[in-house]
Design goal:
This protein has a seven-stranded parallel β-sheet. A six-stranded parallel β-sheet has the order 2-5-8-11-14-17, with no helix packed on it. The radius of gyration is 16 Å and the shape is globular. The protein has one helix spanning 7-12, and strands at 21-25, 29-30, 34-36, 46-51, 60-62, 72-74, 79-82, 85-87, 94-98, 103-108, 111-113, 117-121, 129-135, 138-140, 145-150, 152-158, 161-163, 174-179, 185-188. It is mainly beta.
Length: 191
């Protein structure tokens, strides 16, 4: 109903198994991390997105000047992340991470720039990350990888821009690296 000063305070209001939304105002920036730890459902996913004048830039989560780890961590199922700009500013961390067991995750219209990895799915043997979609995102200038996905199933990556990832001199230099994945990996229409 009324805006909160911090993303953390807004996250405290999110209820499990409700279609709650954390909306960040376009043109504003935050220097704090986001942990999506309350589960949504197929019909009622949790949304982290943008609101406001669409002529303004996407809301920014920036590591610049932050005293804490700034990124989006997804540890619960049924999450939507839309229209967020994640700025790493020369860090070795990843912009967006998914814990083993995260599933039904939808990421659209985001930008991930200046990180060690743009995003990482942290699946484990017997506990995969699954049913993940990334659409129309820009993943650029990340020092080791654009996307790293061990033990991930049912992944769709389409219509994204992956550029200048893996330029940091590390042996793992790839735009996209899917490892030990199961079935139904679809990578199409990316640049």
């Amino acid at each position: 109903d009324t805006p909160y000063r911090t993303v953390g305070r807004a996250l405290e209001q999110v209820r499990t198994l409700h279609a709650d939304a954390i909306l960040l105002r376009r043109g504003d920036a935050w220097r704090e991390g986001v942990v999506l730890n309350r589960a949504g459902t197929a019909e009622l996913p949790v949304l982290l997105g943008a609101y406001g004048d669409e002529s303004l830039p996407r809301p920014v989560l920036s590591r610049e000047g932050a005293s804490e780890r700034v990124r989006i961590a997804i540890v619960a199922p049924y999450q939507i992340i839309s229209d967020i700009d994640l700025q790493g500013v020369e860090t070795t961390d990843n912009a967006l991470g998914m814990a083993a067991g995260a599933y039904h995750i939808y990421i659209e219209g985001c930008r991930m720039q200046g990180w060690g990895m743009g995003w990482r799915m942290n699946g484990e043997e017997g506990n995969t990350v699954h049913h993940v979609t990334q659409r129309r995102c820009v993943v650029v200038d990340n020092s080791t990888l654009g996307l790293y996905a061990p033990y991930a199933d049912d992944v769709l990556v389409e219509e994204n821009v992956y550029d200048q990832n893996g330029t940091g001199g590390n042996i793992r230099q790839h735009a996209l690296y899917l490892s030990r994945c199961g079935n139904r990996q679809v990578i199409r229409g990316n640049v």
